[in-house]
Amino acid sequence: MPFKPVENPKCPKCGKSVYAAEERVAGGLKWHKMCFKCGLCGKLLDSTNCSEHEGELFCKICHARKFGPKGYGFGGGAGALSMDTGSHLEGSSS
């Protein structure tokens, strides 16, 4: 029976083998510590500020900026909310 070396997972960023001592896990994939950084701003990530999207890593801020909701007035807060039901618009026949 020939010797068969253990297959280590490959880092999605650099394609090299990832060993247990240097691995970071996100999105079911194993990354090198130095490859575990935001795809936009380059900030090093950890488990608390990491978001994975289609095999690429982002910090929470860049992920929200790139994939979050967009448009005028979104996230206006409580000051933009209204309790008006529109009743003053019904039944007016002039």
Automatic annotation (TrEMBL):
The gene is LOC108739529. GO terms for molecular function: actinin binding; metal ion binding; structural constituent of muscle. This is Muscle LIM protein 1 isoform X4. It comes from Agrilus planipennis. It comes from the Eukaryota. One of its GO terms (cellular component) is nucleus. Residues 9-69 form the LIM zinc-binding domain. InterPro entries: Znf_LIM. Keywords: LIM domain, Metal-binding, Myogenesis, Nucleus, Repeat, Zinc. The keyword Methyltransferase does not apply.
